[in-house]
Amino acid sequence: MKVLFIGDIVGKVGRNATKALLPAIIDRYKINFVIANGENAAGGFGLTEKTVSEILLSGVHIITTGNHVWDKKEFIPKISKQDRVIRPVNYPPGVPGYGSIIYTLPNEQKVAVINISGRVFMSNIDCPFRTGKAEVERLKASTNIIIIDFHAEATSEKIAFGYFMDGKVSAVIGTHTHVQTADEKILPNGTAYITDVGMTGPVNSVIGIEIKQIIDKFLTNMPMRFETAKGEGCFSAVVFEIDEHTGKSIAIQRLQLKYP
Q: How many CA atoms does the CB half-sphere of 116 hold within 13 Å?
């Protein structure tokens, strides 16, 4: 089976790029399953019910998130009612929402997706390695196809996590930095890996935000409101192929397309 993982969708530009480009990509690469990180979809910060619906209607099956999942306060009580949106599994017990999901495709193939957050330079939540291993072992009873969105800042933590999960899961796809890395590979024991899949959002920006606002912040260190940039967009993603019998990946390819 072929899976498309779309990098962090940022604001209206990212949503529009996804809507416009996704159908042709699905057709060209014969995609069976689509995952997108959507934690920046609503104005660059968080999600709303409207943006979730928009992304799902574009052809995405599962939306993952990260540290910005709680930015829109009105969405917090609603996330537990979303059966296709997940948040990091290593938040403490009692946090709304779900950290993983099993999705059944039309051919009855079950695909598990886990959302995990790193801790280096980020919130000091539960250990992603120990929590992730336990969640993988739980899901293995239902399917051997398991895909992880590892939402983390430090490349060292991401690389270490990839090797830690090698052979245990089908893919470890890094998100969060909005900058696509050129290290996509199949790890020795059959796990597809990339340190960061990149951003689907405005090209002429600082990781999705208006350039002047970010420069002013660096120059003055004063509080200011950030807004997503407009204009030309990019669509960043990876396509990887999984052997349905073994759950191991056999190929991975980076994508980066311009929009419009």
A: 30
What is the pTM for the complete model shown? 0.98
> Of 166, 186, 203, 190, which Cα lies nearest the Cα of 238?
186
Complete domains list, the chain, with CATH? 2-255 (3.60.21.10)
What is the percentage of the chain residues whose pLDDT exceeds 90? 100
Q: State the pLDDT confidence band at 73, using cuts at 50, 70 and 90.
A: very high
Residue 149: both structure tokens together: 């969105």
Residue 61, phi-psi category: left (phi > 0), alpha (psi -120 to 50), beta (remainder) = alpha
Residue count (the chain):
260
Closest CA to 116 of 160, 76, 78, 80: 160
Residues with a catalytic annotation lie at: 68
Q: 3-state DSSP: the chain helix, strand, coil percent, rounded to 5? A: 25, 30, 45
